[in-house]
C-alpha cells in the first residue's frame, strides 16, 4: 500500500477544502504529485533525506507587468519558519513558510515581527527571517502543470533559465505568443502552452521531493501541510489524478485503522497516521 500520511487534524482541513470542482469535464478535484526542481532559492531538493549543496542564486527579474501596482512583500530567508497567531513566541504556531515564499506585508510590529497575509488568514513571522522586497501585485489567471519536461524561459525570445521536470506546476500571470508567463517558486518566467494542462479550480499539489502538500482554490494557495510519503520500496507514483472518494473512519488494512482516507488512484491515497 503506497500512501501519504500526516496528522488527522490537518487531513480534516484538506477534506473540508478539497470540494468537488464545477469546472466542465472535471468531475472532482485534482491531486498532482510531482518531484519538482526548486528554482526559487539556493537549494535543489533530491529526496526527503538528502539535500544538495547550495547552488548559485538565480537573479530574479520581474520580466513584464513593470507598470503594475507594486506591493511590499516579506521574502522568507529560512526553511520551516513558524508563522504565529500574534507577534511573540507566546502565540500559537498556525503554519510554516519556506525560503521560496513571499507574503504581502500588512505592517511591521516592534521591529521584531512582520504581520503578513498568510494563505487565507493573517499571521506573524519573525523579522530575523524576512527581507523586504517590492514586487508587482500579480493576479493569477489559472493553475497549470507540465505534461513533459520543458524549458523555463526568462523571456519570449528563447533565453533559458533552466529545465523543468514533468508535472511541475505553475501559476499563470498572462499569455503571449504561444507562451504563458508564470510564477514558479517566486520566480517569474515563461513556459510553452503546448506543454501544459490545466488543473481544476480546487486541487492539491504534492511535492514528493520537499514532502509538502499545498491546497489551492481559485489559483490561490489556501493551506499547506508537511507529509510523509511511501517507503522507498513503495514510492508514490507521480502524475495528475482525480480524487476518487473520501471516507472517514476507514479500515485501511487489517492492522491499520485511519480516521480519513482520500483515494486518488488504485490503492494510493492520503490518510492520517500514528504509526
What does it look like?
The protein is mainly beta and 275 residues long. Helix content is 4%, strand content 49%. The chain has 1 helix and 23 strands. The protein has a 5-stranded mixed beta sheet with strand order 19-18-17-2-20, covered by helices on one side. Strands 8-7-6-3-9 form a 5-stranded antiparallel beta sheet, with no helix packed on it. It starts with a strand and ends with a strand. The model is unreliable at 6-28 and 39-67 (pLDDT under 50).
Overall mean pLDDT = 77
Cα-to-Cα separation, first versus last residue = 14 Å
Low-confidence stretches: 6-28, 39-67
> What fraction of the residues are assigned to beta strands by DSSP?
over 45%
Number of helices: 1
Q: Provide the helix percentage.
A: under 10%
Class from secondary-structure proportions? mainly beta
Based on CA atoms alone, the radius of gyration comes out at 19 Å
Order of strands in the sheet with the most strands? 19-18-17-2-20
**How many strands appear in the DSSP assignment?**
23
Bulk shape: flat
Main sheet properties: 5 strands, mixed
User: N-to-C SSE series?
Assistant: EHEEEEEEEEEEEEEEEEEEEEEE
List the helices and strands and how they pair.
Blueprint: E1 3-5, H1 8-17, E2 30-34, E3 70-76, E4 81-84, E5 93-97, E6 102-109, E7 113-118, E8 121-126, E9 130-136, E10 142-146, E11 150-153, E12 160-164, E13 169-176, E14 179-184, E15 187-192, E16 196-198, E17 202-207, E18 212-217, E19 220-226, E20 239-242, E21 245-253, E22 256-265, E23 268-271
Parallel strand pairs: 1-23, 2-17
Antiparallel strand pairs: 2-20, 3-6, 3-9, 4-5, 6-7, 7-8, 10-13, 10-16, 11-12, 13-14, 14-15, 17-18, 18-19, 21-22, 22-23
Amino acid at each position: 500500500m503506497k500512501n501519504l500520511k500526516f496528522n488527522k487534524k490537518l487531513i480534516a482541513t484538506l477534506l473540508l477544502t478539497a470540494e468537488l470542482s464545477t469546472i466542465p469535464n472535471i468531475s472532482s478535484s485534482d491531486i498532482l504529485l510531482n518531484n519538482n526542481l526548486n528554482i526559487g532559492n539556493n537549494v535543489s531538493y533530491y529526496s526527503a533525506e538528502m539535500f544538495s549543496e547550495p547552488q548559485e542564486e538565480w537573479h530574479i527579474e520581474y520580466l513584464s507587468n513593470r507598470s503594475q501596482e507594486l506591493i511590499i512583500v516579506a521574502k522568507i530567508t529560512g526553511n520551516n519558519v513558524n508563522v504565529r497567531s500574534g507577534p511573540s513566541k507566546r502565540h500559537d504556531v498556525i503554519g510554516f513558510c519556506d525560503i521560496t515564499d513571499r507574503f504581502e506585508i500588512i505592517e511591521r510590529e516592534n521591529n521584531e515581527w512582520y504581520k503578513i497575509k498568510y494563505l487565507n488568514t493573517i499571521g506573524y513571522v519573525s523579522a530575523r527571517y524576512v527581507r523586504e522586497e517590492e514586487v508587482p501585485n500579480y493576479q493569477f489567471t489559472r493553475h497549470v502543470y507540465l505534461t513533459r519536461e520543458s524549458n523555463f524561459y526568462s523571456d519570449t525570445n528563447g533565453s533559458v533559465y533552466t529545465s523543468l521536470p514533468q508535472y511541475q506546476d505553475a501559476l499563470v500571470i498572462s499569455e503571449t505568443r504561444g507562451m504563458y508567463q508564470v510564477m514558479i517558486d517566486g520566480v517569474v518566467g515563461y513556459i510553452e502552452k503546448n506543454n501544459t494542462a490545466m488543473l481544476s479550480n480546487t486541487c492539491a499539489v504534492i511535492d514528493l521531493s520537499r514532502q509538502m502538500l499545498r491546497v489551492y482554490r481559485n489559483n490561490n494557495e489556501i493551506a499547506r501541510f508537511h507529509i510523509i510519503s511511501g517507503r522507498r520500496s513503495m514510492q508514490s507514483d507521480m502524475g495528475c489524478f482525480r480524487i476518487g472518494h473520501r471516507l472517514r473512519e476507514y479500515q485501511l488494512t487489517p492492522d491499520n485503522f485511519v480516521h480519513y482516507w482520500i483515494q486518488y488512484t488504485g490503492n494510493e491515497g492520503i490518510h492520517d497516521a500514528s504509526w
